[in-house]
């Protein structure tokens, strides 16, 4: 569906995107994950042909996005970071404008717009000016704009950013729904969001690919060592002593007393085995109540650290190639 | 070509959805109407040459206002990301914008036809110079609008775009005064691109092919430059 080869973007001496290679097959939902400034938006702008690459190529069904732009761009729907909306048009007027722009045939336009409005639950606002509708609606109009003309490939740049939790869930559901008929590439800096909708994830940092894999494989890789947070009432030294007796515990970090009489700990375990049960029974035996306990989710920074550590050797190999 | 019309249609609608078109057209008509009336009352002649001269002066102020927002807003709001990721060529886009602003300008000019009609009602005006002047105004307006469009492609700020096109037009205007300072080929060049000097002929009812050619060339060159600026920006 889309093939990216040696894609590179330089601004003067700064390399924003460095030698990106990947392929997306029809029907896939691919997630781009990376911190702010990792090069996600730049990559998407190149994928859509909005911005030409310094080096490398993007082809969509064999059509080059720069050389065959008229044909290639018909296959793409793009939702930029900020939805590209004319504020003084109504939703319907705007969608009509977009459908003309995307060469939807005249006799199919009304039908197309009606179906998009229905799909994105926009009928309540279809005759209101875009400047007067809420951020969530604006985002949906942005998505509506992207799916007009029924493009095979949807490219969505941070589709849920700035939305409230309810809207985030709605948009996610919608993306999953759209994924049944379209190939989707979406970007985000939130791990849980990407893993909720995507079949495959590309993690990029500083313009380079850190990892490409399915969410399952990535989380397998990442969950090999898990962290547990616990708040335990009891004498610190004795609690630590007991925890140390659990063989799987690798490291104990004392956070300190947050709640009166109880101390917070971070435990990291080396194995995949869940040590929570063991911890519970040991503490119960000793008569130290556990007030809180949870598996700590890895933050994005930690994901990066782990991945970059794990892939350090691969990268060395890459550099030698260059 | 279809998409030129799409861009054109949206742009014209947006002119008339905002107060801009109304304010520009009505202010222009108030000022030219005032000039027309006082001239007519003072000289009592069915004669409009000085009104047209003043109109040209006014265009220096009015076309930048008409054109300053043409390309700045879409860039600022990121809408160009929609436009240039759909199968739309830069030329189609620029032409749509140009024709939209030009149409608003023509609408404005159309209202001034009231003045010769008044003359017709009370006297017997000489139509040669009047028709010549309108042809000149139409062509000159096109050139000014393409200059404004070009200025608008350079920046994301409406104010700066307006000032740039105003600056270019003022520069063209003071060219006349530079003619005497230089001699030889520079003087000749200035003479050739002095758009305001050509209007004098139009205003007398003389259709000089050189004048027509210069006005059309200005329009074409600045439209071309606009497409280049838009293209270049994406490549940089």
UniProtKB/TrEMBL annotation, chain A:
MF GO annotations: ATP binding; ATP hydrolysis activity
Recorded coiled-coil stretches: none
Gene3D superfamilies: P-loop containing nucleotide triphosphate hydrolases
Domain ABC transporter: 2-231
CDD domains membership: ABC_DR_subfamily_A (cd03230)
Keywords: ATP-binding, Nucleotide-binding, Transport
Alphabetized SMART domains for the sequence: AAA
Family: Belongs to the ABC transporter superfamily.
Protein name: ABC transporter
Organism annotation: Thermohalobacter berrensis
From TrEMBL, chain B:
GO MF entries: ABC-type transporter activity
Chain ranges passing through the membrane: 20-43, 55-72, 93-118, 130-152, 159-178, 212-230
Residues of the ABC-2 type transporter transmembrane domain: 50-207
InterPro entries: ABC-2_transporter_component, ABC2_TM
Subcellular location(s) of the protein: Cell membrane
Major location (coarse): membrane
Annotated membrane topology: Multi-pass membrane protein
Keyword terms, alphabetized: Cell membrane, Membrane, Transmembrane, Transmembrane helix
Keyword flag RNA-binding: no
Keyword Membrane listed: yes
Coiled-coil segments: none
Name of the featured protein: ABC transporter permease
Native source species: Thermohalobacter berrensis
């Amino acid at each position: 569906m889309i093939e990216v080869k040696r894609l590179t973007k330089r601004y003067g001496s700064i390399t924003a995107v460095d030698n990106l290679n990947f392929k997306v097959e029809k029907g896939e939902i691919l997630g781009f994950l990376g911190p702010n400034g990792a090069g996600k938006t730049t990559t998407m702008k190149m994928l859509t042909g909005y911005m030409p690459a310094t080096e490398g190529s993007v082809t969509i069904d064999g059509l080059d996005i720069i050389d065959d732009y008229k044909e290639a761009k018909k296959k793409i729907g793009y939702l930029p970071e900020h939805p590209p909306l004319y504020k003084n048009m109504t939703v319907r007027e705007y969608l009509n404008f977009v459908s003309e722009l995307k060469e939807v045939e005249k006799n199919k336009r009304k039908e197309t717009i009606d179906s998009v409005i229905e799909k994105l639950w926009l009928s309540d606002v279809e005759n209101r000016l875009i400047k007067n509708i809420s951020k969530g609606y604006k985002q949906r109009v942005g998505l509506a704009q992207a799916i007009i003309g029924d493009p095979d490939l949807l490219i969505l740049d941070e589709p849920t950013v700035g939305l409230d939790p309810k809207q985030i869930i709605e948009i996610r559901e919608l993306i999953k729904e759209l994924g049944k008929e379209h190939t989707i590439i979406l970007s985000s800096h939130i791990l849980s969001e990407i893993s909720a909708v995507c079949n495959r994830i590309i993690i990029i940092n500083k313009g380079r690919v850190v990892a490409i894999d399915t969410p399952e494989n990535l989380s397998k890789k990442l969950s090999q060592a898990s962290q547990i947070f616990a708040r335990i009432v009891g004498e610190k030294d004795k609690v630590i002593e007991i925890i140390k007796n659990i063989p799987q515990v690798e490291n104990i970090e004392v956070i300190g007393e947050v709640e009166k009489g109880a101390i917070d700990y971070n435990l990291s375990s080396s194995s995949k085995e869940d040590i929570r049960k063991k911890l519970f029974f040991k503490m119960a035996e000793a008569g130290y109540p556990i007030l809180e306990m949870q598996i700590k989710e890895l933050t994005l920074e930690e994901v990066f650290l782990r991945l970059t550590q794990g892939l350090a050797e691969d990268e060395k190999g890459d550099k030698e190639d260059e | 070509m279809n998409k030129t019309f799409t861009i054109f249609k949206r742009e014209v609608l947006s002119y008339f959805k905002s107060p801009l078109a109304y304010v520009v057209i009505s202010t222009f008509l108030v000022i030219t109407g005032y000039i027309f009336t006082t001239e007519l009352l003072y000289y009592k002649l069915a004669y409009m040459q000085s009104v047209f001269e003043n109109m040209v002066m006014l265009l220096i102020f009015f076309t930048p206002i008409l054109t300053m927002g043409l390309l700045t807003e879409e860039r600022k709001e990121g809408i160009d990301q929609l436009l240039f990721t759909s199968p739309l060529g830069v030329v189609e886009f620029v032409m749509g914008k140009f024709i939209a602003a030009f149409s608003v300008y023509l609408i404005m000019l159309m209202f001034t036809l009231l003045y010769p009609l008044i003359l017709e009602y009370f006297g017997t005006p000489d139509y040669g110079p009047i028709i010549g002047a309108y042809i000149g105004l139409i062509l000159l307006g096109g050139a000014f609008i393409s200059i404004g469009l070009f200025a608008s492609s350079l920046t994301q700020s409406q104010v700066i775009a307006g000032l740039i096109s105003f600056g270019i037009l003022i520069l063209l205007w003071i060219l006349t005064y530079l003619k005497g300072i230089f001699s030889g080929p520079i003087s000749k060049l200035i003479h050739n691109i002095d758009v305001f000097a050509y209007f004098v002929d139009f205003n007398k009812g003389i259709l000089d092919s050189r004048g027509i050619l210069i006005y059309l060339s200005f329009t074409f060159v600045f439209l071309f430059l606009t497409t280049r600026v838009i293209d270049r920006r994406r490549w940089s």
